[in-house]
Amino acid sequence: xxxxxxxxxxxxxxxxxxxxxxxxxxxxxxxxxxxxxxxxxxxxxxxxxxxxxxxxxxxxxxxxxxxxxxxxxxxxxxxxxxxxxxxxxxxxxxxxxxxxxxxxxxxxxxxxxxxxxxxxxxxxxxxxxxxxxxxxxxxxxxxxxxxxxxxxxxxxxxxxxxxxxxxxxxxxxxxxxxxxxxxxxxxxxxxxxxxxxxxxxxxxxxxxxxxxxxxxxxxxxxxx
Length: 224
Known about the structure:
disordered N terminus
């Protein structure tokens, strides 16, 4: 891993030193821009984050088939990720089969501080990571969003930024959880993972909603 010490001046970039350190140096070498500068100086990015609206429903799951085969309970479930603008608009839809009936849904939450936006109301990104069963290790789970790639539900959010800046933002935002000491410098209140789990039963729909504090929880209704 590389870290980078740099001096910026009008019209160019002066590299004062390169040493063994963090991932940010790699991003700098590839794009000529650091994630620090993008988050703290880019007005277009700030405007895009300000355009985020409060979200309630961010997806749902339901059992498609559940059976006991040779003493082993298997659950096939459908997971749907919905648009940030319309809870009826589907941006991801897939079926997974897991052993058992208890299923974990793993997400990454990025909370921008009140000071980051002009109206003083914090904004958040909700990035679904994976689905895994009670008998699986999280790393063996089924991916929803690909680490470092622009999530479908936020496609178009950063449309006014050049493609290299969009790629830098999404590739680095997943890793900021490991840079906790620098989050406030970037205007980010917190980056944390959350996993909600529930015993899934046929005939029910598990609607995933977000609390005011950024926690994801399921609301269970009959599958009509």
